[in-house]
Amino acid sequence: MSKATCTQDHKYVSLLHELSYEAANMCVQCGYCLPACPTYESMGNEAQSPRGRINLVKMAAEGKIDLQQDLAEPIDLCLGCRACEVACPVNVPYGQIYEAAKEVIALQQKEEQKKPPSGVKVRNQVLNNLFPHQNRLRFFGNATWLYQKTGVNKVAQKLKLVNKVSEPMGQFEKVLPPVESPLKRYKFGDVFPSRSPQKMQVAFFPGCIMDAMMSKINRLTIELLQSVGCEVIIPNGQNCCGALHAHQGSMEEAKKLAKENIKAFESSGADYFINNAGGCGAMLREYNHLFKDDEEWQARAQSFVEKTRDITEVLVELGPLPYKKEWDGIITYQDSCHLRNVQGVSEQPRKLLRSVPGATYMEMEGSDRCCASGGIYNLIHFDESMKILDEKMVKAKETNAQTIVTTNPGCLLQMKLGIERSNLEHARALHIVEVLAEACDIQ
Questions:
Q1: Mean pLDDT over the full length of the chain
Q2: Sign of CA dihedral 59, 64, 67, 73
Q3: Less crowded by CB within 10 Å, the N or C end of the chain?
Q4: pLDDT greater than 90 at residue 132
Q5: DSSP alpha helices (H): ranges in 3-93?
Q6: What Rg value do the Cα atoms of the chain yield, rounded?
Q7: Dihedrals φ, ψ of 203, to 5°?
């Protein structure tokens, strides 16, 4: 190995050491995290467990193993569900260690033009050229609406055209819910008045995938908030939360997006900043960690975090909801990992579902375990994801539920595919907002 190569390797080792070593050293290797880890359970490999990955990060930070050859794959195969943090008796910040490793691995790949794992190049193009641009995302969503409305999707599915490009994308395209007409889209900058005596003013974060592909859920979210006494603002200038960028190691891009969102929501003057996607909400609630070394932005981020709420928290706080219809059948709930493990929100969704008139709520065994959606994990590591999903669907089937409820768009698509794979013909997957809106006769 040349002196120049050694110097370069030392640069990345030093950066990993700076970003993660102190946190990684907190791990006492007790193994409490092992039963909580879906990839350890499905793969049975210590390198695919939290303590195994932490140990690999420590070794890489000490220069004992190679970042790309030895660390990149185990880190890439992590779902990032962070259930290990909840299980950990000494509060090891696994998310910090995981994202530090992602950042350094991605930086070395970029600067040394190392060939990234299969699919990463396409993923990076999508993250950098689509998600940060609202107009492009909405154009993509509107094009999907036209694709579905004209019936072209049926022809494409019959001919398996999408499958020829990507088998995983073909599978998810089949279960994609109908995209709502562009004519029903809310506009950024809109203000929606309360439909009952006003209790507070809130600013709504529509997200990326939710805004582009599931805008109906966002519209229903706005109407539910109006029904419990909220004036709802859709701030101009907001964009992607940056979660997918942070999870793939693009921390500078994540910080750039975070700053734009903080500025947009600060200007709204709202009491709360509301979101309806567990993954997005987790990122929004950790903006303060993004800027821990930036005094000015850390203070602004902390203020932003303190006002951030999931839709279920606000509906419970301001409820009861104005229910008008009886629900028929059994409902079960699949936790969003980031809503439960990062935001600490688990009882509010259950409380809301138990309050739906006529519904029978049945708790699913292992509802707190990851469904293996993992942002875009199910597209990049499809086989690994489906192994975990299929086991999840065994538990879902045992509840006899006709409705499986989630609180995150990725989880929603994952559960829809799980229903199809498991031949649960009489079951459907819905976002919790869809269930509550239907029971309130909001369409």
A1: 93
A2: negative
A3: N
A4: no
A5: 3-24, 38-43, 50-61, 72-76, 83-87
A6: 22
A7: -110, 135
* Vertex 32 angle, CA 29 and 33, to 5°: 90
How far apart are alpha carbons 336 and 407 in whole angstroms? 6
Nearest-angstrom CA–CA distance, 77 and 68: 13
CA 248/CA 380 separation, integer angstroms: 12
- pLDDT at position 2 is 39
Q: Which amino acid is at 220?
A: L
CB within 8 A of 111, min separation 6: which ones?
A: none
Question: Is 241 within 8 Å of 196 (Cβ atoms)?
Answer: no
Record the tokens describing residue 389, joined without a space. Answer: 């999903």
pLDDT in tens, 40-91: 999 999 999 999 999 999 999 999 999 999 999 999 999 999 999 999 999 9
Tokens linked to 116: 């990234």
Q: Residue 129, exposed/middle/buried by CB under 10 A (0-12, 13-18, 19+)? A: exposed
Q: Does the pLDDT value for residue 104 go beyond 70? A: yes
Do 135 and 87 lie in a common domain? Answer: no
Q: Which residue in the block uniquely carries the two structure tokens 């990326």? A: 208
Peptide bond into 320 cis (omega under 30): yes
Residue 309 DSSP SS3: strand
Pair (186, 310) in one structural domain: yes
**How many C-beta neighbours within 10 Å does residue 44 have?**
9
Residues whose CB falls within 8 Å of the CB of residue 47, separated by 6 or more in sequence, listed in order:
53, 56, 74
3-class DSSP state of 93: coil
DSSP character at residue 34: G
* Residues 206, 292 within the same domain: yes
Report, as an integer, the average pLDDT of 92-109. Answer: 95
Strand intervals (E) in 132-210: 191-192, 200-204
Q: What's the average model confidence in pLDDT over 350-369?
A: 98
Chain centroid offset of residue 357 CA:
29
Task: Please tell me whether residues 41 and 132 are part of one structural domain.
Answer: no
Predicted local distance difference test score (pLDDT) of residue 1: 40
State the total domains in the chain.
4
On whether both 389 and 359 belong to a single domain, the answer is: yes
Question: Is-contact 213 176, C-beta < 8 A?
Answer: yes
